[in-house]
Design goal:
Layout: H1 3-39, E1 52-55, E2 66-67, E3 72-78, H2 83-90, H3 92-101, E4 106-112, H4 121-132, H5 137-147, H6 157-166, H7 171-180, H8 184-196, E5 204-207, E6 210-213, H9 218-229
């Protein structure tokens, strides 16, 4: 038996094992990182396990549409054509509204983050701003999420104008606002603020600055709101 040969084989095996281990660790890290990016990217794909992150100082907008007047502020970056934003509206939002917004504990601040793959998201965002100018944001917000579909059905410009008329808005002012692109710049600025705040998909929330990604269940929001109320 060649002792030197056995020693060399052993050293080669150990070195090989270390190399393979390092490669596996690197691949695992890469896949984990890309899963997070993929789950929260601008594709609008939902995060299967929405994540709660640390606090972020979101740039404020004085004239941003608001629902409620409570001390705890939920900033929602959203897209009216996003099915997961609609999912939030149909589930957690309704409970948040009843328990916290209607009891003057929480204010929902709406910020625009229309995704480019959603053909009617931009105009819907502008329309909600036009409604906000007439003090009708909340009812218009409700109407868009109730009637809009992920394929853009119910969110075309004729639909947006019809909703304004049905809700009793001044249609001359509303139509002029929408047709002229009066709200284009404010929607663009909201989107840019979202990007600077780390928003990569919708919906994304900031509860007194604490960031939540995805259409989370009510219990998660409840826990965070209760904590914020005690601060």
């Amino acid at each position: 038996m060649n002792i030197n040969s056995s020693k060399e084989d052993s050293e080669f095996f150990i070195a090989g094992s270390i190399l393979v281990g390092a490669i596996l660790i690197s691949v695992s890290i890469y896949l984990a990182a890309n899963k997070i990016v993929g789950d929260t990217s601008l594709t609008g794909t939902p995060n299967q396990n929405p994540i709660v992150l640390g606090k972020v100082e979101v740039e404020k907008r004085v004239d941003a549409p608001k629902i409620g007047s409570g001390k705890v502020e939920i900033v929602e970056f959203s897209d009216f054509q996003c099915p997961f934003c609609q999912q939030f509206f149909n589930t957690a939002y309704k409970e948040i509204k009843a328990k916290y917004i209607d009891t003057d504990k929480v204010t929902l601040v709406y910020r625009h983050f229309p995704l480019s793959l959603h053909v009617n998201a931009q105009k819907s965002a502008e329309a909600s701003e036009c409604a906000n100018k007439q003090g009708k944001f909340e009812v218009y917000y409700n109407t868009l999420f109730i009637n809009g579909k992920a394929d853009g059905t119910g969110l075309a410009v004729p639909d947006l104008k019809k909703y304004a008329a049905n809700l009793g808005l001044d249609t001359v002012k509303f139509n002029s606002c929408l047709d002229s692109g009066e709200a284009v710049e404010v929607v663009k600025k909201d989107f840019e603020v979202g990007q600077r705040s780390g928003v990569t998909g919708t919906p994304t929330f900031f509860i007194n600055g604490e960031k939540v990604i995805g259409a989370e269940k009510f219990s998660v929001f409840e826990q965070m709101i209760e904590r914020a109320l005690k601060q």
